[in-house]
Amino acid sequence: MYKKQVAFQKIVCFISLVAGVLVFVYALGLLTDLFDTLYSQIPNPNNLDSAKVEGARIYYDMQPFNRTLLRCAIGMILLSCVLFLTNTHTRRKYYIGNTAATFVNAAAECFMAVWCHIQISAFRTQYLTTVDFAELEKRLSRRGTYTDSTFWFDIHYLVCGAALLAAVLLIANFVWKKKMMREERELLRSSGKAVSV
Q1: CA 164 – CA 110 distance, rounded (Å)
Q2: Which residues of 24-60 are buried (b: 16+ CB within 10 A; e: fewer)?
Q3: CB neighbours (10 Å) of residue 156?
Q4: What is d(CA 113, CA 80) in angstroms, rounded to the nearest whole number?
């Protein structure tokens, strides 16, 4: 049973790292379609009301969120690296550093997933309700860059779900590890050996 638990904790730590990388890639790709379609429709970025297509300002409205999301993704990756620096992926016993790394990582992933979902849902609604797609298609059909796809808005469910899954798995692994440590302590006590807490 011990080997299964150690294998599981390695997998969980790698899942946490992959979730951070996934958020990073998502943050890089999020504004790509909007850049291709909407960036050119605002000739003067200092005056967002000068847009050639109504609603094109969403590209600029999303910039602060996208920068923050990118920073959060880098933070998630660094926090996942702390799991490896504290040997949370291989340690037989969890100490304070392992516990702190686990819970800080899980909390950050939960926060990022919920915050990202709320923000992306609001921007998706803004995109679908404010952009004049007929005018946009008319302007961009010659260049072949027109898209009304909501792919990057919709895939956030997968990205946020991966972050939440990583958080849940970290907590589940922690509970399993603590249970095994308690059982090992009781086994040592029953055999009369000294037990370190």
Answers
A1: 6
A2: bebbeebbebbebbbebbbeeeeeeeebebebbbbbe
A3: 21
A4: 15
DSSP 148: -
Calculate the average pLDDT of the chain: 89
Instruction: Show the domains of the chain with their CATH numbers.
Output: 2-190 (1.20.58)
Backbone angles phi, psi at 193, to 5 degrees: -85, 155
* 159 contacts 21 by C-beta, under 8 angstroms: no
Residue with tokens 């302007």, as numbered in its chain? 139
Query: Which pLDDT tens digit goes with each residue over 18-77?
Result: 999 999 999 999 888 778 777 778 777 778 777 888 888 888 899 999 999 999 999 999
